[in-house]
Write a structure and sequence with these properties.
By secondary structure, the protein is of the alpha+beta class. It has one domain: 4-Layer Sandwich (Double-stranded beta-helix), CATH 3.60.130. 22% of the residues lie in helices and 28% in strands. The protein has helices at residues 16-24, 50-53, 61-64, 105-110, 114-120, 130-140, 187-201, and strands at 6-9, 46-49, 70-73, 85-92, 100-104, 124-127, 143-145, 148-150, 156-159, 161-163, 170-172, 179-182, 207-210, 217-221, 225-229, 239-245. The chain has a 5-stranded antiparallel sheet with strand order 1-14-4-16-2. A 4-stranded antiparallel sheet has the order 3-15-5-13. It is globular. The two termini are 22 Å apart. The structure holds succinic acid. The site of succinic acid (SIN) has 10 residues, from strand 4, strand 15 and strand 16.
Length: 251
Amino acid sequence: MAHAKGRVLPGQHLDPDAHLAFAARFGPPTEGHPVIPGIPGYPNIFEIDYTKAREPNATYGDVVSRRQGIDWHTDVTFVKRPPLGSILNAKVIPPSGGDTLWSDQGAALADLSPSLQSYLSTLHAVHDGREAFKNILERVGKGSWDGKEFVELEPVVHPIVRTHPETGEKVLFVNPGFTSHIVELDCRESDALLNFLYQHSVRPEFIVRYHWKAGDVGFWDNRSTQHAVVGDFGTQHRLIQRVTLKGDQPV
Ligand code: SIN
């Protein structure tokens, strides 16, 4: 990656209070997730447990049960102010599989021709969390983000090229998890361009991959990366807790 966009600190074995305290050194934590409730007593800690996710009506079953991993996405881009970063605490890791991949979206943009970069910087995309989270929202009744409660997920619009607020780097800001279409193009054009960008943005040369051990803590910049979980761990138990930091509106 061009500059550090993430770090893993092995062997930390943090309890929820220590996880939150560590995260808070980098910025204020948000709700763990806008729709999925936090773990008991910790609204700022969201748990991803694939074993439970496969149970009928699991709180986050709709998100992961069709696959055994999580496809490429940037966390929570379907809100006006997506998170600055996420901090994972690896609680239970299978003996094999379940690695996380991250892709550098600054490098992905820089690798495109100057003409395409310049055209992309004129475009905006809609990010919509309804397909992934509408059913869960109906089950849990209401969600919350930036301290405001809601009962419906309204799609939001972000620029396709955003400027990183700290480094000034231009980064590609679309992801197949939550981007639905490009505002300025018709449907066929939008689908074709987004499909090209999704393939391009996760080329092997932009990716790092980490094999977790229980107790590891991983921290990434959510403004300039996408990530995915390799779904190669079958029915083995994998449990991760996540704290998410408050971010700003992409410009
Ligand atoms: C996530 O999408 O935040 C989860 C990543 C992981 O489980 O490795």
